[in-house]
Structure formats: C-alpha cells, structure tokens
Amino acid sequence: MWGMIATWRMALEGVVTASQMLSQGALATQTVVDAVVEVEDFPLYKSVGYGGLPTENGDVELDAAFMDGDSLAFGAVGSLIDIANPVRVAQALSRERFNSVLVGQGAREWALSQGFSARKMLTERALQHYRKRCQQTIDKGLSPYDGHDTVGIISRDKYGSMSVATSTSGLFMKRRGRLGDSPVIGSGFYCDSQIGAATATGVGEDLMKGCTSYEIVRRMAQGMPPQQAADSVVFELEDRLMSRFGRVGDLSVVCMNADGMFGASTNISNFSFVVASEAQPPTVYLAERHLNTTRYVPADETWMNDYAARIRAPIVMEEVRYD
C-alpha cells in the first residue's frame, strides 16, 4: 500500500501531485523529490527554496537531503547559494559512493558542474519579510532567531520501497555557514524501507542532540507503533534538554513504518502535517501537545482559507516614530 506524509501545510500541493503518481505506480525515490521540488519552487513559502529567508549577511543559504530506504544511500547539501532545487542536488549526491555531503562553495561548484541551474533565490517579497523581521526583532533588541519550518516528506510506493527528503532555508537570520538538522542524517531524516522513516522540523540545534529521526526509526524497529515512537522520542528529548540544558526549542516530527502506518509528534500548538494513502485522500492535520501525547484533527475549511490568505497577504512595515 502506498503512502506519503509531510511536515507543514506547505507540502499539500506537492503531496497531491505525488500521491496521484504513487497511485499509478511511480517510485518513492521519484515522488518524494518531486513533492519537495514543488514546495521549493513556490515563492510564498519563505522557509524553503525560492523565496526563502536570508542569513544575517543577506544570502539565502539552502540545506537539503535525500535518502533511499532500500540501499540506505543518502546525499545532502548545506549552505548552498543560488542553485535551484537543492533537493535534486542532494538526490544526485546520493548516487555518489563518496562525497555524499557537500556544503558551501564546494556544493555550488559541484552542482553547476553537474548541470544544475543557477538561480537567484532571494525574492523581493523575502527581502521585505527580512526587513520587517529585523524591524520587529533586532531593532528592538530582541533575538531574531525564529522561523525554521523545514519541509520533510516520506514516501512509500506500491512495491514497499521508501524514501525521505528535506529542504529548508534554515533558521532566520542564521550566521553564514550555519547548518541545522535538516541535512544531517539521523537527525533531520532517516529511512530504511524494511523498518520505516522519520523526518523532523524545529530548532535544529536541539533536534540534533537526540539524533531524533534515527531514534524514531530504531524504536519502530523494536516494534513500537509510529505514533508511540514519535511521541516517546520527542517528549523524552524535551525532558532531557530541560533538565540538563535548561531550555528547549520547537520539536516536531512525522514518521511512517514499513506497513504504511504513520505518526506525528510535536511540543508546540500549531504544527500541521499532510498525509495521503490508498485509504485516504491528501489531508492536512493540525497537531498539538496534550500532556505527553500528540493529538491531531483534520484542518477545517476556515483554517485552510485563513492559511491561504495569510501567506498571500501584503507585507506591511511598522511605522517608525521619532518622538
């Protein structure tokens, strides 16, 4: 039975297209990348791909990863500047025996040598967002580190093969060269077709402290249902960080096992994710924490309409007062 699960509402259109392909017999390796590409190409999603928010230096540095659950081959890029569709570069790297992870200038040079397209990824709208966020944070002496909505998608095809892919512009106003969990195998993603797959979104510095995605897959291998595996990993990590580090950021995950069962967990109140399978059409769920479990319900029409209006709303700068 084919299936797909993805982080955030922004993945919906890509999941719709990919689920149609899966139903017709397309492979997990193809559909998961195509679904992420659709998110990367949509300029209104300011945390992924074209139109992503820039670093403190004003550059859009993109991270992406891909993993084939049959072979365990993976590829990842980090701090990639002005190359369209970094997830396709990551997939191409997964076919390399060595040099599977490339960052910065090396990643860009390799991508161009392989025929990937150069493209200026900073849009005027993203620049306006950047200026407004600076106005709301740095100009007021507040921390700018906010905004980290990675798209992570898991695909299972009719033949039982699984793949996972991620893409993000990372933490808003991050320092040049900063990497989060998204391109780090075992933290931002992991996939084994014989067991299952997981992918994460949130504060990468915290997610990496628990090797979050690998740990979820490991627990599924021990027989845990996906939902239990996801909740146990997220809330145990949260408790550990609070007791030993004193604070914890946003932690959200989605996962799917080899039988197509899915799970999602979050320690925030506004996490959305998308699921599609032979048993159900593409559906957006809204998840929130309830004690040490995660509850979710399908998003209603009002929420969906509000979301569409919000991402398309004009950007209004705050009025500067000098009195």
Automatic annotation (TrEMBL):
Keyword NADP among record annotations: no
InterPro entries: Ntn_hydrolases_N, Peptidase_T2
Keywords assigned: Hydrolase
MF terms (GO), sorted A to Z: hydrolase activity, acting on carbon-nitrogen (but not peptide) bonds, in linear amides
Location of the active site: 150
UniProt: substrate binding residues: 178-181, 201-204
Record site: Cleavage: 149-150
GO CC, alphabetical: cytoplasm
PANTHER family in UniProt: L-ASPARAGINASE, N(4)-(BETA-N-ACETYLGLUCOSAMINYL)-L-ASPARAGINASE
Protein name (database record): Isoaspartyl peptidase or L-asparaginase, Ntn-hydrolase superfamily
Organism of origin: Izhakiella capsodis
